[in-house]
Design a protein that fits this description.
By secondary structure, this protein is an alpha+beta fold. It folds into 3 domains: 348 residues, no CATH class; 58 residues, no CATH class; 178 residues, no CATH class. Helix content is 55%, strand content 12%. It contains 23 helices and 13 strands. The strands form 3 sheets. The protein has a 6-stranded antiparallel sheet with strand order 8-9-10-7-6-13, with helices on one face. Strands 5-4-11-12 form a 4-stranded mixed sheet, with no helix packed on it. A hairpin with a 2-residue loop joins strand 6 and strand 7. Helix 6 packs parallel to helix 9 and helix 13 crosses helix 14. It is elongated.
């Protein structure tokens, strides 16, 4: 009975139409994302493409949707006026990604069907189906029409780590970059086997398209290098020469990237390995074990990152788990050069994945090699007449994770990649916005200070009333004390500091502030009155150019699960705002302080 079941599985996974079936399964599992709507950065992209008159000079070109800030302090101050940056943001903060092909897909859909997000999600689903099909052919190309190739293709197609690229429109670049990268690798293999230079040119062209879709396309290089090491033939000089065209492309791409002002500075969410090699090296050894564990098993790397908070014992635990999987991978790799190709490619693909905070969405390329190894291992087990209990237990766990839990999680998380939509809507939506038209909106504490910009940008695109300026003073995960010191002045103290995890990319984690530092924006000056040695401001005094009770100022606070009106206290009096409990809220607040201490 058991042998019959295995034979049926092998028959299915080696069927000539199995790649099409795998692509269809990927599409079906991603269908819940059709109801996902727009989320977070999607609103920013919509704003950039439609370019409403109320945002005259702060937006990049309509085909440059992934440029957020250019490092110009004057531009940063204008962004502060619109609520895109908090007062404690780094004025020289820069965040821009060169993803022109992905931007074109967004431009087309926002112009063609601007009010139909489900059609936008359908485009992402089709990209995912194409990627699953290409990966299935990749496995067959290198592993043959085998059970191992079939299982690996299915695991990739149903992997829950792909929920962000599939369900979050702004992350579509991951799908497109990986698709072109896989096609480049297939074409590279044809070139090296057949010796036709036209296919070599096509491979390089596809690699260029991968990089122009998203910087994640650099993961292609990991498998090209692994190919030269383990699968290519000829002398080492000949193998190295095959990589030269791709190296030239990477150099030219990086020079162009920098020349056009793209890059990341003053943010704790991403680390540029070329600009900050020591910082990247430090984070790599912390993040790599989290990513390996997230890829091979559970929990996802992003959850692990919140759990560890740089606690040595927890880091060592995940390092031990990752070490076990690396040991198991080596046992497979040492027997088969194809396994060595996939294993080395997966490990090298982890390096660029560590350039941002640990998240399973960065495992698209690494997952290709990882699933190839798991597929090979499971196929080998199916041929054994006797299997040790421990080995059988590990196999059952991996099957449960990758064949049962993963597709269920993919369906759920592709619909809710950022969590329940209601929570994010509550974070963004401010009551009575129509009445605030032309007045200044002051939010005393906010769970995610970057989100009002998305909401306000959406209102601008719809030509709805907007505040003249938007200010977020503090965060909700910390006890906050608000004291009024004069008719026009208020002092705010955040026990865990003016910093937040959710908007770290815009708020410049690495900015250091000292007592006496001032930030001047339209109608308000913030002055730091207490700060830690790490440069994290703890207390600040805000001086407005009018009485705090003036009707032109609209005050709000986050309380429990929504925004409510806030009344500034009388002169000399204080108001205590209790920290709001949210999942990982306290952890998030403390996380930023610990990261700062690790850096400084």
């Amino acid at each position: 009975m058991k042998q019959k079941k295995i034979s049926k599985i092998e028959w299915l996974s080696t069927h000539r139409r199995w790649p099409l079936a795998v692509a269809a399964i990927a599409v079906v599992l991603a269908l819940p994302s059709l109801w996902g709507g727009l989320l977070a950065d999607d609103y920013y992209h919509r704003l950039v493409i439609h370019r409403p008159a109320s945002y005259p000079d702060v937006l990049p070109h309509a085909l440059d949707t992934y440029r957020f800030a250019d490092g110009d302090p004057d531009h940063a101050r204008r962004l502060m006026d619109f609520g895109a940056l908090t007062w404690y943001a780094n004025p020289e903060f820069k965040a821009g990604f060169w993803r022109p092909l992905t931007s074109i897909t967004q431009f087309v859909e926002h112009k063609a069907w601007p009010n139909s997000p489900w059609l936008m999600h359908l485009q992402s689903i089709l990209w995912y189906g194409a990627l699953a099909l290409a990966v299935a052919f990749l496995f067959r190309r290198f592993m043959g029409v085998t059970l191992a190739a079939g299982l690996a293709a299915l695991m990739f197609a149903i992997d829950d780590a792909h929920n962000w690229p599939v369900g979050f429109l702004a992350n579509r670049h991951g799908l497109i970059a990986c698709l072109f990268g896989v096609l480049a690798l297939l074409m590279h293999d044809s070139w090296r086997r057949e010796g036709k230079h036209a296919k070599g040119v096509a491979a390089v062209a596809l690699f260029i398209l991968a990089l122009l879709s998203g910087e994640g396309g650099i993961g292609t290089v990991a498998y090209l290098a692994a190919y030269a090491l383990f699968l290519d033939t000829g002398t080492w000089k000949r193998r190295a020469a095959s990589l030269a065209p791709y190296l030239v492309v990477v150099i030219v791409w990086r020079i162009a990237w920098s020349a056009m002002g793209y890059g990341l500075e003053g943010t704790g969410l991403y680390t540029d390995p070329l600009r900050e090699p020591l910082k990247f090296f430090m984070f790599f050894w912390i993040q790599a074990p989290l990513l390996i564990t997230g890829q091979a098993a559970q929990p996802p790397a992003e959850i692990q990152g919140l759990i560890t908070i740089f606690q040595p014992l927890t880091i060592l635990l995940f390092a031990a788990i990752a070490g076990f999987f690396l040991w198991a991978a080596w046992r497979i790799m040492k027997k088969d050069r194809v396994a060595r190709f996939f294993g080395a490619g997966a490990l090298m693909a982890l390096v660029p994945a560590c350039a941002s905070l640990p998240h399973n969405r960065n495992l698209m390329f690494a997952g290709i090699g990882a699933f190839a190894l798991i597929g090979l291992w499971l196929a080998q087990l199916s041929q054994r007449t006797t299997v040790k209990r421990l080995t059988k237990a590990v196999a059952v766990v991996l099957i449960g994770i990758h064949f049962i839990l993963a597709p269920l999680m993919l369906m759920l998380l592709s619909r809710f990649p950022l969590g329940p939509n209601t929570a994010w809507e509550n974070f963004s939506r401010i009551p009575g916005m129509d009445e605030i038209d032309g007045r200044d909106l002051i939010i005393v504490n906010h769970p995610a200070p970057m989100l009002p910009y998305y909401y306000l940008g959406d209102r601008a695109t719809n030509n709805e009333p907007l505040p003249a300026h938007t200010r977020v003073l503090g965060q909700v995960f910390s006890p906050v004390t608000v004291t009024r010191t004069s008719p026009t002045q208020i002092r705010v103290r955040c026990e865990y500091g003016f910093s937040d995890y959710f908007s770290r990319i815009l708020n410049g984690l690495c900015r250091k502030m000292s007592v006496g530092d001032e930030v001047r924006v339209t109608g308000m000056t913030a002055r730091v009155t207490e700060a830690e040695d790490t440069g994290l401001p703890i207390e600040a005094v805000f001086t407005f150019d009018r009485n705090l009770d003036d009707d032109s100022l609209v005050w709000m606070q986050w309380s429990e699960d929504s925004f409510k009106p806030f009344n500034p206290p009388a002169i000399g009096e204080s108001v205590e705002l209790e920290p709001v409990w949210l999942p990982f809220g306290l952890t998030i607040a403390k996380f930023d302080k610990l990261v700062r201490r690790a850096i400084y």
